[in-house]
Amino acid sequence: MRFGGGGGGGWGAHMAADERRPTRPAGPTLRRSIGLFRDHWALVALLALAITAASLIGLIPPLLIRAIIDDAIPNHDGGLADLLVIGIIVATLGGSLVGVAQSWLSNVIGQGVMEDVRNRLYARLQKMPLRFFTTTRGGEILSRFSNDVNAIQDAVTNTFSSLLSNVITVVSTVILMSILDWRLTLLGLAALPLFIWPTRRAAAAQRRLLARQQERLADLSAHTQETLSINGVLLMKLFGQESYEMGRFRGMNHDVRDLSIRRAMIGRWFFMFLGLFGALAPALVYWYGAHAIIRGDMQIGTVVAMAAYLTRLFGPVTQLFSTHVTVQSNMALFERIFDYLDLKSEIEEKPDAVELPRARGRVEFDHVSFAYTKHRLALNDVSFAVEPGQIAALVGPSGAGKTTISYLIPRLFDVTEGAVRLDGIDVRDLTLAGLAANIGMVTQEPFIFHASLRDNIAYARPGATDDDILRVMDAANLSDLLARMPKGLDTVVGERGYRLSGGERQRIAIARVLLKDPPVLVLDEATNSLDSESEYAVQSAVAKLLAGRTTIVIAHRLSTIHSADQILVLEDGRIVEHGGHRELLALGGLYARLYERQFTSERAPASLAEAENG
After folding, report:
1. CA–CA dist 327, 369 (Å, integer)
2. What is the tens place of the pLDDT at every residue in 386-410?
3. Are strands 391-395 and 439-442 parallel, antiparallel or unpaired?
4. Cα–Cα distance between 299 and 293 in angstroms, integer?
5. How many C-beta atoms surround the C-beta of residue 424 within 10 A?
6. pTM assigned to the model
7. Rounded Cα gap, residues 525 and 552, in angstroms
8. What residue segments make up the domains of the chain, in order of their start?
9. 10-341 belongs to CATH 1.10.1740.10
10. Is residue 357 classed as helix, strand or coil in its secondary structure?
């Protein structure tokens, strides 16, 4: 568990620093955000057409009211009045129908953009190397998918159409008002420029607060994911830390609440005064218009129509100012999304990468050095070769570099110096899919999905038949498990396979690799922490798994590797000894000391039991 709020080193530190840097210019982010609509241009054009139609239809009723007042009533023309009233009803109904179409188009476009963003985010993160996921909190990643993507949904679905609608409404209304009477138009709009500066200030403050709010939401998501996962809950209960974790959660949750309240209140006074001006502006028009009518300079219908247009205008104007604040604040969300979309992976496939068919299985390390961080080598000038069908065991103290070697073979990391080759080809020159197809890996802690037995094993080959799955389960000594499962292959095994024993999880992982049938196998010895019965079942399955494959085994129990074709003894990132079991014992070096130490520790419990019984 993490108790700090940071993201660790590497990418995590980069992202944490990135989130807290000074606010960037909004222009590039805004242009890029608009670019998200590029693939939906046809629907956007239809939406613009619907909005324009709705806006133009909305201009009709005030003109008809003007005609009623200035023409129908003075001329005592009841028929004309009836037609004009019918026209008002038809225009209102038509505008409502177009509004329904506008809403449908807006949602289709918005949801399409959201789908694209999620797909691009997932695809980008899939390409990130293992280093990214070891240095970035899982909750932070989930927060980008849930909190950030969901937060921009309103901006994409509603703000875009609202902005377009309000702009068209304002422009068309101002043009028509200017045609009717430019003096009343200037009077009604004279104070609007005074609201520009407060709008910019409110927008900048909203953007800063929203960025901070999303950071705290990411912290909250990370905390929730860690402490409410199976391992987190188990640790919390074993150490009695429920109150401590509840206190941490409440603190972060309180921060989110406070930031949300501050965001909600920013600009509220400003918008209150803007709304007040919107209510007073028609009164100014009536005041000026009344005097103009008295002087004979203006008709009553024109004044009424202008007041109606002004009332119609101030709603969109207020929304435009509000939308400006919303758009500016949403730039913080888009920046967080784009930060992830712009991540660069150090594991890239070359344009001319070689598509390797089924490999023979020769694995070679040629003067390989590797560093997780700049100033400390995890491997230093490591060279060895494993021929097709051979078993090579990696042994050595903790931190010697065994796991690092296992990560470099399937290219989970790239070497710092030297080369790792498969069948004589540098793994960096192979396609990533081809490399993955030729290498299987069984780790000491295999990952089991919260899914059925079938789905967990068929993950290696989604098109596998039940006969294929049953065959590899039998080879992995899982027939007894299948017989106990109430729904057979359809039995759901629980989160991370917690309904299964450690040995059963290992054998499912072995069955999965058997189904994949790779020519090269990397095996982190699976029996290190199992009881004797489970160990026997797993070892029997492993023996079937190794047959005919090039295998690199990370050995924890040295008694299990007597038959290895070669044993590589590592210390401080170097190969210090290399040979067979008897040869290395006779050498009397590190391997012999490790073997003797392990043999002594394994004998001690038995000797103690004999002494007690004696």
Report:
1. 49
2. 999 899 999 988 889 999 999 999 9
3. unpaired
4. 6
5. 8
6. 0.70
7. 10
8. 10-341, 363-613
9. no
10. coil
